[in-house]
Amino acid sequence: MTDKTPRHPIAIIGAGIAGLSAAHTLEEAGIPTIVLERFDRAGGRLNTRQGGGWVADHGTSFITTRHTRVCDLIRTMGMETSRVAIQGSVRTLTSDLKIEIPENGGLDGSRFSLVDGFGFFMEELAGRFQVHYNMAVGAVRWDNNQKVFWWNSEGQVFWFEDEDGQPLRDPVTHKVIIASGVILATTGTASRRIIEKSPSLAGLLPEINKVDYTSTFTTMFKIPRIDVPWYALEGKSGAPFTWIALEERKSPARVPDDKSLIVAHASPSWSIDLIAMHRMDAMAQVYRKLREIIPQLPEEPLSQTYKRWNVSRVQSRPMVDPDDRPRINWPVNPPTAPFALAGDYVYGRTAEDAALSGHDAAQAIITQLPTRKSVLGIHFAE
Fold first, then answer.
1. pLDDT tens digit sequence for 40-52
2. Quick check: 372 pLDDT over 60?
3. What's the pLDDT band for 356 if we cut at 50, 70, 90?
4. All residues at 6 or more sequence positions from 48 whose CB lies less than 8 Å from its CB, including other chains
């Protein structure tokens, strides 16, 4: 117990890199947490598909050594030996499907991946905390008045409703889940849905409504091994793809020796059209376009799959200037409530931005929690 240990855990909504980064910072400070995750696994955009000797990161494709917060978490998990420097260059793809070599040659020695994928790292990180999966939060509730959230008495507490308006309960004890503070660490779209149904968070709506998300349709194709002089293609403005990567260039162990695995992220504008199609038609269109760009591709892939990222690329300005952090006071009612936002829409759209936002949200909660003092052995909240 620290001088800021609350009576109840801090609830973190979302088990992506922002939420787990926040949980790590709080737990390191001696403050208990509970993580509520909508889906059946942790990771968010740091997600990995694997099976049958294949491994593909279909969200975040790489991390760099400049991403200090994510690197610190990898080091904390003892997974530095799983880091693999990415081999090959990143070239650019133009709107007329030409591949160009950047002025720097497209080489960046700071890029790395993990042998088993970023999803494995996220699952291991989530294992350090109390995470409830398949628990979709529809609204955040608390008494809407000016009481203080005392650490050593019931005082005010947060609780949560599901999307049908029923209180969320611990799956083991069946007791209503309550918390002494909240970090909303979901995607911008999910956060907006929760805020709209939470009267005490209504002051956040003008800011969160400025966040403009677009969609990404991601495909993965298994093919016979091809030999190209690059690791990835990064799309310029107007190109049909934002990113095309060969997974075996990230780590040879990701695919069988005689095979290649392509992960392709369609552009935001094209993704809208692809998501509206039947998935087989959409994947066929993507593969035909890839064959125009990479003539070495066979007529048909060996197998294929896809992922719809409905909320993946933030187009608007971040909600907080990264140089002016952490943000302590969000426009919630009452303003004394220990509450913070985290996610890729807060500082920026990279995994490092999201991880930093989670760390800083945790620091903000620590600042907001009242301290305790002792007089003749009796504890009081300051």
1. 999 988 989 888 7
2. no
3. very high
4. 55, 56, 57, 58, 116, 117, 118, 119, 120
Residues 146 and 291 in one domain: no
- Separation CA 379–CA 44 (nearest Å): 40
DSSP assignment, residue 323?
Answer: T
Q: Which residue intervals of the chain are DSSP H helices?
A: 17-28, 68-76, 118-126, 188-196, 205-208, 247-250, 268-276, 279-293, 351-368
Q: What is the pLDDT of residue 53?
A: 81
Domain containing 337 — which CATH number? 3.50.50.60
User: Is 47 within a domain?
Assistant: no
pLDDT digits 0-9 by tens, 50-92: 887 888 998 888 898 888 999 999 999 999 888 888 878 899 9
Please tell me the least confidently modeled range out of 124-138, 166-180, 228-242, 317-331: 317-331
Rg (CA), the chain: 22
Question: Alpha carbon of 4 to those of 11, 32, 146, 182, 369: distances in Å?
Answer: 15, 11, 20, 15, 6
138 and 282 together in one domain: no
Cis peptide upstream of residue 252 (ω within 30 degrees of 0): no
Burial class (CB in 10 A: 0-12, 13-18, 19+), 376: exposed
Q: How far apart are the first and last CA of the chain?
A: 16
Q: Tell me: do 158 and 76 sit in the same domain.
A: no
Q: Clarify whether residues 229 and 289 are in a common domain.
A: yes
In terms of domains, do 67 and 174 share one?
no
Domain enclosing residue 180, as ranges: 10-40+133-211+316-381
